[in-house]
Specification:
176 residues; alpha/beta; Rossmann fold; three-stranded antiparallel β-sheet; 5 helices; 11 strands; 32% helix; globular; binds flavin mononucleotide
């Protein structure tokens, strides 16, 4: 059975809460949920899993959450191979205050890990979202699951459930 690890960076706890809910929905044990700030040492932590769920909120103007910065620099410098790894992305944003770069961090993670050979799954429809621009939008879809607890907290659970169903289909977890 494929193993799943969840790694998240979250400054005010929004992406953290979703990471924990995802762990519940996908039966991922607590010790396989990593806060990038406290629990992440190096890429070997990630290589222990077949399937990686990466959570990252967007800060600055379209930048990754702080705790992902150094790992992404290491990724660029050390160029570890993620070939054979399947990665799905999720992250918080704020479409009203930051709709010009809505959840753009997901696009950054997508490109960086794809360049290292990973297979990215878990794209999500843009229907139902409002924003001006997102670096996470590719070919009319988001590269992962966006949620907005600032303006649309009531939609998060439904989006999560829908994303989990997409993931289960794409990863054939139901049969595993
Ligand atoms: C200074 C600042 C900059 C932000 N920049 C963005 C942004 O560029 N794009 C976006 O979608 N959200 C942006 N946000 C919104 C955060 O992503 C949002 O508050 C999110 O819920 C934080 O999630 P976290 O607690 O998991 O870090 C920004 C928020 C602040 C306070």
């Amino acid at each position: 059975m494929a193993s799943i690890g969840i790694f998240y960076g979250s400054s005010s706890g929004v992406t953290k809460a979703v990471a924990e809910r995802l762990a519940e929905l996908l039966d991922v044990e607590d010790f396989n949920v990593f806060n990038m700030e406290e629990d992440f040492t190096d890429f070997d932590d990630m290589f222990a899993f077949d399937i990686l769920l990466f959570g990252c909120s967007t800060w600055g103007s379209g930048e990754v959450q702080n705790d992902w910065r150094d790992p992404l620099l290491d990724l660029d410098n050390d160029k570890p191979s993620f070939a054979g790894k399947t990665i799905a992305l999720f992250g918080a944003g704020d479409f009203k205050a930051h709709g010009e770069q809505f959840v753009s961090a997901l696009g950054i993670l997508h490109d960086k890990f794809k360049a290292r050979g990973a297979t990215l799954v878990g794209g999500f429809p843009t229907e139902g979202y409002t924003y001006k621009y997102s670096f996470a939008e590719r070919d009319g879809k988001f590269v992962g699951l966006p949620f907005d607890e600032v303006n649309e907290a009531d939609k998060t659970e439904e989006r999560l459930q829908r994303w989990v169903a997409i993931l289960q289909e794409e990863l054939a977890l139901a049969e595993a």
